[in-house]
Amino acid sequence: MKPLIRAFGATFGILRAEYRQLFNRYIAPIERFPGDAREICQQIIDRLWYGDFYRTSLGHYNFFWMRDFGTVAESLVILNHATHVHHTLRWAMRHYRHGGRVKLCIDKNGNVFNAPGKPSIDALPWLLHSLVVSRYELNSEEREFLGGELSRYVDRYLTPEGDIKKGVRYAEMRDAVYYERSAYAVALVGRLAQCADVLQLDNFPFAPSVYRDILINEYWNGMFFKADRVTTHFSSDSALIPFFLKVVEDADMVNATLDYIDKTELNLPYPMKYGEIPSRRLRYRFGMGPISMPNYTETSIWTWHATYYLHLLKRYDRPEYKKQYDQFSALIERHQTYPELTNPDGSWYYAPFYRADPGMVWAALYLELPTK
To answer: Is the pLDDT of residue 12 over 60?
Structure first.
């Protein structure tokens, strides 16, 4: 009976997410906020806390996404929202345990599901990352559950040497395409290894250094981590996340990547473009290709990735930080909200079957940054 209930809940969650997306894409107006960029972002973060958990956006992503929450958990703690972060994690852990799996999404009714449908390789790593950066105290039942999830994760995704299995399809940050073992995915497994050590969870058998070595030996081209094992172009998720999560800490490598971004103007007119137009056609997920969603994750400007970029500029004391911070602030003020993505010129992204979402929880990453 339990598997049937779980399957129904997952299906209901997906259908509800699709309904919200259609409603907000074609009917709901975009809510705008007064003030400068920081004031706008603070209003958004306040609105996304509903008393039970942090929603992902004020648009059609008005439910919990583990990936999005994981990226902002540390920022929210630094912004003095640790109580809300712990409440969200407690809420998520309860529903994950009830659902029997860690998946990418949870709706307000507690239905656990994956979107866009495939199991995600990064939900469990982002959950453990959130537990670590917020110093969440796990109870014995939560520890037992996470131990089982780690064992399943290793069996599903990893080879006996710890590398990601070739040919396994899964959802990840760049969810419009199918990668062949992206650098982003390897970085998230590396972060999982780090967090399993910190949390003293014994069901993950590989050291963090395994993933640092894979990234450097298999992906580094002297300028950036290439997108995956068969793609040579720059993609900001794969290029930035290994450094952002400190899976690789090498100032020369970071600066080489930041120099490349500056040289190729991936940070203009605003930070930052998702990447470059690939030299070979990517494998797109059904319904997310260049006809239905043109330039969704190519040269469009993604505010999520802009904040990783700004954090690295500041962390490594780069001289262009102030200029890039101001440009990004201007983009927020232009739209009077925190957009999911924009066209390359900064205008709102509209496609035949998609409209960029407003009021993203990613605004917390921006609020953590200093103004200069």
So the answer is: no
